[in-house]
TrEMBL record, chains A, B:
Gene3D superfamilies: Winged helix-like DNA-binding domain superfamily/Winged helix DNA-binding domain (1.10.10.10)
Protein name according to UniProt: UPF0122 protein EP57_07890
Origin organism lineage: Bacteria, Bacillati, Bacillota, Bacilli, Bacillales
Function of the protein: Might take part in the signal recognition particle (SRP) pathway. This is inferred from the conservation of its genetic proximity to ftsY/ffh. May be a regulatory protein.
Keyword DNA-binding set for record: yes
Length: 110, 110
């Protein structure tokens, strides 16, 4: 469950601008704000089942964008490479403050 | 015109999986294959104006995705940072083959 939540947090963060307002609000409250299905249902005065169905559909929409664009996949591959660069430079005592700062900027960009 | 073509090449490359088949075919033939509007019109047996209108609309669709997701923008910013890292390491004589290869992998990833 933790992994699913983390993945959804990433996917929402990346693709939320492509979601409708309703899709964005339900899925954000559930995954980012950690509200329960019941709490969201109460707030929007709809059934718990309606919230659940909407969130499942939005998850599929987000996964579909990721299948097509792969922004998260590439982000994770880049993170690994940056990690390898840091390790390599550290091992060879070449990681000075200047490069460390630039690599940090590169990480923060995503 | 060159800059526009380059930009469209990037945007098509990034977002083509979000286009319809028709959008993708016209815009790809025009920008990637360098066919003229007249040649595309002839191939699809439609008017030159229809091809032109479709391509203009697809350009707007691509720019809209870029406004929302900014994949090209982030790519360009990362390229600059990687360039700076290479320059910094070169200046400090810290750019060995290992790091150079990793940085190249990072560039090729996008």
């Amino acid at each position: 469950m933790f992994e699913k939540t983390t993945r959804m947090n990433f996917l929402i963060d990346i693709y939320e601008s492509l979601l409708t307002e309703k899709q964005k609000s339900y899925v954000s409250l559930y995954y980012l704000e950690d509200l329960s299905l019941g709490e969201i249902a109460e707030e929007f005065e709809v059934s718990r089942q309606a919230v659940y169905d909407n969130i499942k559909r939005t998850e599929a929409v987000l996964e579909n964008y990721e299948t097509k664009l792969g922004v998260l996949q590439k982000y994770q591959e880049r993170e690994q490479l940056i990690e390898q660069i840091e390790q390599h430079l550290t091992q060879h005592k070449q990681l000075d403050d200047g490069v460390a700062a630039l690599l940090q900027q590169l990480k923060n960009m995503d």
